[in-house]
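From the shared-data thread, chain only:
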Amino acid sequence: MPPYPGFNSFMTMKTMQIPCRLCRHLTWITILLVAGSCGTRQEASQVSLHGMVFGTYYSVIYYDAASRDFQQDIDSLFAAFNQSLSYYQENSLVSRINRNESDRVDDWFRTVYLRAESISRETRGAFDATVSPLVNAWGFGFSERAVMDQGKVDSLMAFVGHDRVRLEGDRIVKDDPRVQFDFNAIAKGYAADVVGGFLESEGITTYLVEIGGDLLARGLKPDGSAWKVGLERPAESMDAPQQWDYYVEVADVGLATSGNYRRYYEDRGQRYSHTISPQTGYPVDHSLLSASVFAPDAMSADAYATAFMVMGPDAALRFVEERDDLEAFFVYAAGENGYETRASSGLILKRRPR
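Structure, as tokens:
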């Protein structure tokens, strides 16, 4: 797709269909990032860094008068982050806590745990970081899919729930030793926040950090324009190319999308979504196909997007409209093979130029 009028350049970023160390929902979220080039009269130069982390792509774009290259620093941050919060790493902190080999937390674990707990309460359990046993049993984690029936679900639900664990000082206390954490629905966004914090510590005030579609944008570009982000329309199949109709202009916001139309499996004619409800123990089966959430930080946007996929379109929209710190864009199924969209009242959508 060639650049269209008014956009200097673009990159399409999407998650990969390979095991993702920190993203349980490989949603193929449709983030199309548009970065303007820096004119000759602008003092700050645009620096673009790219790589792979957590089984997906990342992109970091920032403006810096000294054109410094922070690639090595950022990759080092990701490596340390992985050792704390990736349950795909056998010796990571979260893996050791899940196996009850440790109960001591570090600062990253503490931060993500406390935010996860807060959002669990706000959403009445629609988001829950202890859902890991269910995710694995349904075949969307790192173990083989189990034979699922009501008895199996009930047995797993006995030790799923954010109210079954607590933080006391620097110690995690479980009511049941079988409780396990899965921070995949919040940690990828938090990683974007961590990189943003690092850039700010280096004096960078205008940047965009994107990890597998979760992003954090700060500041206006030197020409005064905002960052432009495209929102993908539902794909007809898991490997269909990205297409999009709308974009938004953002600054000083976190954005994350969760969706069901790129990650699922079919068994005996029934489709099973990768979004598992912590409230019922089953994959969700409502009409919501994707939820894109705009929040003050990427960590919160990531978690709310997952919660909204559990809640469904009506409840999620009501939730957003009651908040002055959130906006959202929803895509939901309508009619045979059709879909419709809804946006919260404060979100300004723009049509893609034709």
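The first strand starts at residue 11 and ends at 13.
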